[in-house]
């Protein structure tokens, strides 16, 4: 099996659920920008698989996930197109998709950390790999939609990914049970993200109103 999915079948199942959810939320973003169906499909694929692709290119880790598993392109593209058919009902599912997005963030983070660990890279690179995997797809989506990426806003998103990655690496460094460490890291990261959404927690903002000249 590809190194990305060495952990457990549960992690792989969560990964599939997460990429479907990411593709569907990306389709809604495409709809707000009045993209055609091809644009909807492409944005769904880029958002769902872009973080892992960027990670693999930066770490020279081949083949890319969607190259090794072309079915993921069909899955994410199909999910994006399916969203067009059910778009009128999507507002009723907002909370579910916020939850699935949070799940995707922590799952992608752990998967990204696993890839860097398998390449025996330094801890700081492992954490960065997790964050890129978790966050870069959303950045690509926002850039393609001409929006300020969520990663660069004050709310806790990248922070959650870093927190999850550090917990995961820390537990592994102590030789704790792998599945237990993975569960603790993902559940803790998920709880932090959901609490941040519930209570509006955010990082301090930098506001500069002066001249640079």
UniProtKB/TrEMBL annotation:
Cellular component GO terms held in the UniProt record: plasma membrane
UniProt record similarity statement: Belongs to the UPF0126 family.
Major place of residence: membrane
InterPro entries the record matches: Gly_transporter
Lipid bilayer topology: Multi-pass membrane protein
Residue ranges constituting the Glycine transporter domain according to the UniProt record: 14-87, 99-169
Upper lineage: Bacteria, Pseudomonadati, Pseudomonadota, Betaproteobacteria, Burkholderiales
Name this polypeptide is given: Putative membrane protein YeiH
PANTHER family: INNER MEMBRANE PROTEIN (PTHR30506), UPF0126 INNER MEMBRANE PROTEIN YADS-RELATED (PTHR30506:SF3)
């Amino acid at each position: 099996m590809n190194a990305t999915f060495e952990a457990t079948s549960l992690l792989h199942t969560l990964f599939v659920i997460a990429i479907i959810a990411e593709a569907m939320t990306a389709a809604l973003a495409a709809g707000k920008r009045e993209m055609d169906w091809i644009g909807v499909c492409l944005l769904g694929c880029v958002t769902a698989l872009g973080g892992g692709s960027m990670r693999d290119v930066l770490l020279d880790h081949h083949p890319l996930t969607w190259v090794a598993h072309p079915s993921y392109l069909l899955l994410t593209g199909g999910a994006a197109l399916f969203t067009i058919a059910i778009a009128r009902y999507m507002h009723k599912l907002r909370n579910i998709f916020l939850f699935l997005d949070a799940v995707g963030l922590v799952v992608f983070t752990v998967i990204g950390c696993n890839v860097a660990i398998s390449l025996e890279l330094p801890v700081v690179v492992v954490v960065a790999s997790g964050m890129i995997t978790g966050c870069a797809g959303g950045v690509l989506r926002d850039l393609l939609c001409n929006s300020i990426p969520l990663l660069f806003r004050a709310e806790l998103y990248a922070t959650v990914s870093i927190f999850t990655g550090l917990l995961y690496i820390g537990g592994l460094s102590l030789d704790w049970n792998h599945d237990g460490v993975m569960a603790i890291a993902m559940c803790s990261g998920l709880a932090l993200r959901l609490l941040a959404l519930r209570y509006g927690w955010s990082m301090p903002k930098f506001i500069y109103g002066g001249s640079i000249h």
